[in-house]
Amino acid sequence: MTEGEGPPLPPPFASSGRAPERGPQPDRSQARGGPLHGGLRLPARGLLFDNDGVLVDSDAAVTASWSRWATEQGLDPAGVMAVVHGRRSADTVADLVPGARRVAATALIDRYELEDAGTVPAVAGAPDLLASLPVEVWAVVTSGTPALATARLTAAGLPLPTAMVTGPDVRAGKPDPECYRLGARALGLRPEDTVVLEDSPAGVAAGRAAGARVVGIGERALRAGADVVVRDLTGLRWAAGVLSVPAGAVLRAR
């Protein structure tokens, strides 16, 4: 996918500044895992999903691949793991490896990750949510390569999206907002018409910078500045331009 002339964009409904709609008199407790009665209703004409940590639980595979790679590069695996999540492999390699070795080092980690892709399961709730969505409503926006994203979604038993933005499609990776702007355009929308679902600080920053609301997925997102953070995708539903988030899924809401 490349950035070019897209279809005419419809007027954004989110520009009115509408806050997330809540059920009757929710409990305003912000304690981690605390109750929020009534749940949340987030206006969303489109949904933009990160892949790793949002649709597929790839943490174990990522740790195995990058730890193996780090050891072979003479790097500390723990230090490498602290900077990989949500970023393109080439960007991470560029920060860690001298220039003359970067092309080969990037090709190596891309190969290791692809080899480990078959072990990846779906995040809880992802199969039900994706199965319920019209194909024109959602896209995947990932820092991974097309081959890796496809392999992990397939291994997890999830449908492939009609629209997908991957690492090679953008000039700058997350936290740059270009990827989410392209994802929204692929759906014929403005970013502010969408909700981004992300797990990493880099991804949350990209979604917010693009102008979208951001739902954080999992523990990692608690430190990332998302508008709402949920445990996983269990119970999330979309209908008629609204993403419904059950109260029991919420870890934190602003």
Describe this structure in words.
This protein has 254 residues and is an alpha/beta fold. The protein has helices at 59-72, 77-84, 89-96, 102-115, 126-132, 146-155, 178-186, 201-210, and strands at 21-22, 40-43, 46-49, 138-141, 163-165, 194-198, 213-217, 228-230, 237-239, 242-245, 250-253. A 7-stranded mixed β-sheet has the order 5-4-3-6-7-8-11, with helices on one face. A 4-stranded antiparallel β-sheet has the order 1-2-10-9, with no helix packed on it. Strand 9 and strand 10 form a beta hairpin. The radius of gyration is 18 Å and the shape is globular. The two termini are 34 Å apart. The model is unreliable at 1-36 (pLDDT under 50).
The tally of strands reads: 11
Tell me the distance between the termini: 34 Å
What's the number of helices?
8
Shape by Cα distribution: globular
Structural class: alpha/beta
**Rg from alpha-carbon coordinates:** 18 Å
Strand content: 15-25%
Sheet with the most strands, sense and barrel status: 7 strands, mixed
Q: Name the poorly predicted regions.
A: 1-36
Helix content: 25-40%
List the strand order in the largest sheet: 5-4-3-6-7-8-11
**Order of helices and strands, N to C?**
EEEHHHHHEHEHEHEEEEE
